[in-house]
Amino acid sequence: MKWPNHGGKSESIKQLLDININEELLDFSANLNPLGPPSWLKETLTNHYETVTCYPDPSYSKSSAAVANHEEIEQDSILLTNGGAEAIFLVAKFFEKGKALIVQPTFVEYERACKHYHIEVEDVFYEQTNGFALPMSVIREKLKEKDVIFLCRPNNPTGTVIAEKDLQLLLTEGKKTGTYVVVDEAFVDFLPASTPSLSKWLASYPNLILLRSLTKMYTIPGLRIGYLMAHPSIIRILKNEQLPWSINSLVDAVVPKLLEDKSFVEDTKAWLREQSEYLSEALPPMDFYLSPTQVNFYLLQDKKQPNRTEELFYFLVKHGILPRHTQNFKGLKGEFLRFAIRSKEENQRLVAILQNWRVES
Ligand SMILES: Cc1ncc(COP(=O)(O)O)c(C=O)c1O
């Protein structure tokens, strides 16, 4: 079967599985915030319609200042990007023809970007038996041979968060061995407020590069906005590599307001706390494994019959649910499905259908 590379694509999945149902699938495959976009966004974009008649400010000064203020760092440590995806490819360009370590399973674009820039990639693996914790000893062994290690924190697809002390150790060792640590924080906004931001670490670790995305929290995959944070000397180089006017004028107009909307983020965290609790109570007693996620998606495995995951996928689609397959996530052997955490009613519907699977299979 030719599985799509990313989530969504409800119609092509129905075609692929030859499932003939008229209803739109309930999309659990895209890990976006179901509360978004913020209610004011549509009107604000409309109000800024006139900006499309001019080229954007090439330095994006208002948005950059808003990000600097939000992160409490200087503007020369920030580069706005066309989504997290552009940030990943710009960083890969920086290490062109070098050697990278990737901890799998993780977001597939790191490998794609490395291939694009002829970077030699070695994979190491998180293990389910270890709660998907970072495999520190094998990484430490290999670090000195590498120019860069790509980490995703919180990790897509597991939702797990690398321990701060492990990251600190890698950054300290990387400083000695000339190894950069790239941390993709596309989902960091979903973590509890008590989790300190890594942007404060940039001053101590010139080998740290942080990638961010506004896509996930604000449900704006179509707008394309992210940013990269690093030592000013790296930012200067990457800026030179970036295509001119990479961010459009409409996005530039709304970034400050998005970052100011703290209540939207707080409401999201409250919903997430409640629904994470519900799912972690409802699913394990039915013999489903849930990855120890801290964010808005999780891996699910049928503990009784992990080798029947493709059938489970088919069953769910037939019942109007679209999960994310994990066929192109290395190390998962296709034995898991990834689900976004959605509204209370939608999560309840999913639980009921999984209950039917348990009874019928
Ligand atoms: C971990 C991670 N990083 C980055 C991205 C890219 O996001 P965007 O380019 O929409 O900002 C994604 C999208 O799925 C992701 O999962």
UniProtKB/TrEMBL annotation:
GO MF, one annotated term: pyridoxal phosphate binding
Q: Is tRNA-binding tagged as a keyword? A: no
Where would I find the Aminotransferase class I/classII large domain in this sequence?
24-352
Record's superkingdom?
Answer: Bacteria
- EC numbers listed for it are 4.1.1.81
Query: Reaction catalysed by this chain?
Result: O-phospho-L-threonine + H(+) = (R)-1-aminopropan-2-yl phosphate + CO2
Pathway involvement of the protein, from the record: Cofactor biosynthesis; adenosylcobalamin biosynthesis
Question: Which enzyme class, named as a word?
Answer: lyase
State the needed cofactors, names only.
Answer: pyridoxal 5'-phosphate
Keywords from UniProt, A to Z, are:
Cobalamin biosynthesis, Lyase, Pyridoxal phosphate
GO BP term, example: cobalamin biosynthetic process
Q: Which SUPFAM superfamilies match?
A: PLP-dependent transferases (SSF53383)
Relate the protein's function as given in its record.
Answer: Decarboxylates L-threonine-O-3-phosphate to yield (R)-1-amino-2-propanol O-2-phosphate, the precursor for the linkage between the nucleotide loop and the corrin ring in cobalamin.
The protein, known as? threonine-phosphate decarboxylase
